[in-house]
Design brief:
Layout lengths: L16 H11 L5 H40 L4 H15 L2 H4 L8 H5 L6 H24 L6 H38 L5 H18 L15
Helix pairs in contact: 2-3, 2-6, 2-7, 2-8, 3-8, 7-8
Length: 222
């Protein structure tokens, strides 16, 4: 579905998902029970965060596009033309594409704060505290398991993480393709642009949902 080396495979620091996987394997290569429990907590927390990122992007780009396209059918022709254009631009805009970047703590890394000051710092502290709590909860989930059971759970989480990362890459490639096709319509004579853009949008909705563009709002694949 496109170039697998797309930007979706990179986090904000420029490292690829594959590099992160290798670093993760090196960090938790030991077989001690303490190390395995810690690894399980890390993998489960990472999986949860990746699913949240995917669902957020899917909702913003795909479900929103499907919903707004259906609503546009109730508009007059000129309004429909404007709406289809707005949907396409919104689905591939920076507000959506930036979500493919892994979240980072800019304040602690750069030693300064962006606009927002104490409020931003307080929010980041609360988020960090919540992650610590979730991480501890994940580890307690497997305290009763044997070492072999724990290893099986870790392998399963690792497979699930690889799957969600692949889905993120595929969704990113779909959106990049959508952006390219939208840009190409700008070269089409104006009287043909609406029809071309409508077909592009309908095709995008159909390929990335479980429902047709004419049916009720589809659901996420995750």
């Amino acid at each position: 579905m496109g170039n697998t080396n797309a930007a979706a495979g990179h986090n904000a620091s420029g490292r690829t998902f594959q590099q992160l996987n290798l670093e993760q394997q090196e960090q938790y290569s030991g077989d001690s029970r303490e190390g395995l429990v810690k690894q399980y907590g890390q993998l489960t927390t990472q999986l949860h965060e990746l699913k949240q990122i995917y669902d957020d992007i899917y909702s913003s780009a795909v479900q929103s596009a499907a919903t707004e396209y259906l609503r546009s059918k109730n508009n007059f022709f000129l309004r429909r033309k404007q709406k289809v254009k707005a949907i396409l631009k919104g689905s591939v805009g920076d507000a959506v594409m930036d979500k493919f970047l892994q979240p980072t703590n800019e304040c602690s890394r750069n030693g300064n704060m962006r606009a927002g000051g104490l409020l931003a710092a307080a929010r980041q502290f609360a988020e960090a505290a919540d992650k610590v709590r979730v991480f501890s909860d994940r580890q307690r989930e497997v305290e009763h398991l044997t070492t072999e059971q724990l290893k099986r759970e870790i392998r399963q989480k690792d497979r699930e993480i690889k799957l969600i990362k692949r889905k993120l890459e595929e969704l990113h490639n779909e959106l990049m393709s959508l952006k390219e096709r939208y840009e190409e319509t700008k070269q089409i004579p104006k009287f043909r642009r609406y029809s071309a853009r409508k077909e592009i949008l309908k095709s995008f909705i159909k390929q990335n949902t479980t429902a047709s563009p004419e049916s009720p709002v589809p659901v996420s694949g995750v």
